[in-house]
User: Fold these one by one.
Assistant:
Number 1:
Amino acid sequence: QAKEDGRNQAAVFSTEIAAAIAGKRTMRDDLLAALEHGELEPYFQPKYDARSLQLKGVEALVRWNHPQRGLLTPDKFLPAAEDMNVVSVIDHQILWRSVEIISELNAAHGFHIPELSVNISQSRLYDPELLRSVDGLSPPFALSFELLESIYFDDGDDRFYWMLDLLRERGIGIQIDDFGSGRASISALININPDRLKIDRSLVRPLTEKAGSSQLIKGIVDIARSMNIGVTAEGVETQKHANLLRDLGCDMLQGYAFAKPMPADALKEFCLKAAS
Ligand code: C2E
Ligand code: MG
Ligand code: MG
Ligand code: MG
């Protein structure tokens, strides 16, 4: 009896695994087809100087215009892509397309968007193809990579630091994304020596409610400043937060209080309006 139960469970289990694998395959095929058909596109979210409130740059954020499921945010497909190495292709396309779009906007409309940042996933920092992807580009504006904190949990891998040096040699700024949200230790600031860190939304959100929140941000800002590292606050949703973060010394602000991520044509309208 016990043996039979075990066998039944195994059968159920393997059916589930098969379904999961089939699901993943479908997702992978879908994604590869989507990349080929240009269904993935960058949205852009503006970033502002905390004091002058001038546009300082934009961050590219990938979106998938799925023919059946509609517009998908990265949480719906990036984790699966990461498993399957498809993310390298995504990052490459988003990088190239974003550089193209911002170059065109600046050239055709006389805008001056001074900086573009793109998110680069962990696996890509170990992928020599990244250099080839970068070497073909010569953007007429500053280009930065935003690295997720979780990138350097396996801190100490030489290939990772080698890649960072090569990127820096090519003039690419290095920013630590989602700082304070996860696994990074403060020592990452020494090891990675970023140009800028982005304070995670989870530290910004409780700013007006939780005691200690503003002291914590102030502490991060002081450390960063003493190391000549810029500080962007992300996920800034209210004007009140924006003012507080400015007073705490964050030099750049980004969030729904200013603008949501938008497709290229909306960015154009946005810049035209701002210029008029
Ligand atoms: P991230 O780089 O930390 O980007 C910030 C996320 O917060 C974005 O979500 C953005 O839409 C959202 N956000 C911005 N301002 C606010 C705000 O005021 N309030 C709230 N609640 N949310 C705000 P999104 O676009 O869904 O992207 C999620 C993550 O996916 C990104 O986090 C980044 O880690 C990753 N990602 C996005 N595009 C790419 C890409 O092209 N390549 C790779 N490898 N990762 C990407
Ligand atoms: Mg980012
Ligand atoms: Mg972030
Ligand atoms: Mg994030």
Number 2:
Amino acid sequence: RAKERGTGHVEVYAAHMHEMVVARLELQIRLRRALADGEFFLEYQPIVDLGTSQVTAVEALVRWNRDGEVVGPDAFIGAAEESGLIVPLGEWILREACEKVAVWRVSDWDIGLSVNLSVKQVLSPRFVRTVEGVLAETGLSAEVLTLEVDEEVLLEDEGDAVARLGELRELGVRLAIDDYGMGYASLAHLRELSVDSIKIDPSFIADLGRDDTVTLLTHTIIQLGRDLGVQVVAEGIERPEQLEQLRAMGCDHGQGFLVARPMPAEGVDSLAGGEAGPDL
Ligand code: C2E
Ligand code: MG
Ligand code: MG
Ligand code: MG
């Protein structure tokens, strides 16, 4: 009896797994078509200097226009990584964003660009050449571009990611660690790896001023960043008190819905040379 029930469970589980695998494959096929059909687009979220309130850079964030419905990256980046589509998709994202920023910079606006990378891209054999090529094509100087990678890339150093990042760094491109604070990469270690900036995870900023440990940790990260010459960007600023506290702690840069939401390229035009928003 028990054995029969057990087998039944396994069958239900197997059927469920099968459905999930099929759904995943369907998504991967749709994504491939979406890239060919031009259904992806980028939004740009301003990053501001907390000292001057000026917009110093924008972070490119990918979206998918799926039959008129906008789908966010959390719903498809994983599938794109699994199928390998992230490599051509990532190249499209990089080129599209660099083209836009090159145009914004023509009018003497010293704006930087941040682009998110998956470790799969970093490890793909031609990636360094791709970045070099896109910079050459768009005429963007390398130091304008910051590539954001997650902390795990450095911690595990899967298949030589650190060496690849070093080659990118040699092109003159800047490196940022995204979602810092969730893993365990020490700031000193990041400094050794020539990381230019770290982005403090939004979960820290959410609890700022509410949880003493988090507040202390955030303060320590900002302090250490300053001492080591690593720029610190606070992500996920939503409330005025967070902004005040981060400024008081001497945090260099900030990003979040309070500062400005991700916006289409046309929205960025109107920010040229100005402050990000009324809440600053
Ligand atoms: P991320 O790189 O940490 O990007 C920041 C995410 O936080 C964005 O979500 C942004 O819309 C959101 N955000 C910004 N300010 C606030 C705030 O004040 N409050 C809250 N609650 N959220 C805020 P999004 O666009 O959904 O992107 C999610 C993640 O998907 C990104 O996290 C990044 O890891 C990944 N991603 C986005 N675009 C790309 C891309 O072009 N390539 C790759 N490989 N990954 C991407
Ligand atoms: Mg990011
Ligand atoms: Mg990220
Ligand atoms: Mg982040």
